[in-house]
Model the fold of this input.
Amino acid sequence: MNFERKSGILLHITSLPGRWGMGELGPQARAFGQFLAETGQKLWQVLPRGPVGYGYSPYSSLSAFAGNHLLISFDELIEEGLLTEKQLKHFPKFDPHQIDFPAVIEAREKILFKVADRFEPDADFAEFCAREADWLSDYALFMAIRESQKDRPWTEWPAALRDRDFQALEKARVKLAKKIRRREVLQYILSKHWKKTAEFFQSLDIQIIGDIPIFVAGDSVDVWANRELFFLNEDGSPTVVAGVPPDYFSVTGQRWGNPLYNWAVHRETKFEWWTRRMRRILEMDDIVRIDHFRGFEDYWEIPAGEPTAIHGHWVKGPGLEFFQTLEKNLRKLPMFGRGFKLDEHVIAENLGIITDEVEALREACGFPGMWVLQFRFGAEPMYTPGYRPEGVEKNWAVYTGTHDNDTTQSWLTQIDQNERLRIYDYLKADGAATHRDLAELALRAPAKWAILPMQDVLGLGGEARMNLPGTTQGNWGWRFSEDMIGVETVHWLKEATLAAGRC
Done:
């Protein structure tokens, strides 16, 4: 288990600056890497990179294996000769700080689809398609059919396509050949852009932390192509769905609606689908944060017909056997080998109501958990003898906040005044720059990793919040611009990181 002290920044790729409506993989990503290196950071954490579905959420993806083609860099395409500035002459101008998803997606796909249609396949492309066939073939077909069905969920397709009738799929492959090839080309180009980005960060000795949601979206190629792995009705609709029970924050709980895994079937296959999923993300990322880790110990099962999460119940998950089998499976792959240790590549998201059994599973696996400073202050904890909000153990990742939190600056204005004064007292701060005081507290923490959202580095308010859980509108769109990073910010972050012994 590696306890080298490191720090880094949480920033999704779409939040990067740039000319083309949203952040992408190209010069701006490399410029961000240079900022990280200049300030002594060793980690870049991103959100899931799959093709977005409902609500434009990276946690509601159309595929657990494919990448989001919208992240393809226009600047890289120009450099590669696949696009010209002239062809972008009439590209719309967008707000540099907020993504207008419908308009940006329409504008970018108009360009990307033309690039893909002009692309001339070569041996490298053919090798990519062959290597990734176990997910790419179904993904490209799924997206082509979905487009032909006006983006309706697969459960609403004609029965033959919905149920993957062999003859119906063969006809679709012929009829939709151009759309299928287009999707394959875009995944190929995206893989090249990601590889270039990852190699650049590797040259800077910066590790990339990816994110893998435990559940997949019902309207995804994963469920359509692997129905036996989920609890579904004959028409593909779920019989039970995921969520969390009623708690202090919600009297009805949260009904997420994701179909639940049939773990008995997964176990029979020695978790083959999950092995492929983990292999795929670890091919691209150095470390992966597993979202809703507690679901592997037990999860809240809700009958699909229930409108809320009230009438659900706890069901045991696959537990330690799952992670032990996963590690054994990955060790058999040449790219990982016999010395592969899962605990060196995983962060367990253990936020919310966590039981002793969940913590026992995490500790048995050796995975670092997450401490979020916004959750670790408060009336009761602060009066507990010996309590330290930043923690006292090494095998943790400490954050000021996550993508689901308000920015620290905004959070501080909304909490109870007495709590705010207790925070000032604990930090020995005057309130002039408490977001920096909290960032420095995270950096000084014993935890091996300290990660700061970019919004907290910049001291931004609620306008820069990434996501408000329980809502489906107005999320995921924040972006920063180069002029937000001043010389003083660079100097402060570098000095704070050095003082904390993290570089």
